[in-house]
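Let's practice the habit of predicting before peeking. Look at the sequence and jot down your guess about where helices and strands might fall. Then scroll down.
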Amino acid sequence: MSIAIETNIATEAGPAAELCPPKQDGGRGSVHLCTKSLCLSYGTRIALDDVSLSIPSRAVTAIIGPSGSGKSSFLCCLNRMTDLNHTATVAGSVCLGERDVFRDLGKNPIDLRRRVGMVFQCPNPFPFSIKKNLTLPLHHQGIRDKRELGRRIETTLRRVGLWEEVAGRLRDSALSLSGGCRIPYDYIGSKIESLLRAREVMELLVSTSAPEEAQ
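Done guessing? Here is the structure:
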């Protein structure tokens, strides 16, 4: 099975400019993320074999392929989500700027994931309250002021049209949200940290078998 790669350079006002700002020493279109001879296997099963790819800054890059072709596995390598799978073995290199994410950024993958974020295709809130799901990444960024937390939560929920729906239910479990609410809620739960400090790379996993559920 093969994977198709398509890249479009974003305009100054495009959405990619917000999610993936350029490095100070590179303009739009300069290489910001690249893989060299990347290989990934789960036990004896090969998921990726010798993948070399350059992704420019301030661009929207689409990775398209059939189910099981390695798209999600490739994205998991970029921010070392593969570390969470004890059967995964990675060879080759993934470079963010001029640093290898496995060798140079190996001590703290959490810091790497702050720079390379991922929004999953299925809603997956934590089994906490709606409010705690949204304040958790803010706490990790050192934001503790209750007034500031409240302001950011309201602003973000309004952006996705959920404030009127959940304003009086912030202490309810996030798992109680309907399917229609979970999709935008999960999206902002994954993105709220990027609203504080724009990430360098944002990975979006979008289903091709049931696209209406991933929109």
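How did you do? The chain has two domains: 4-116, 120-215.
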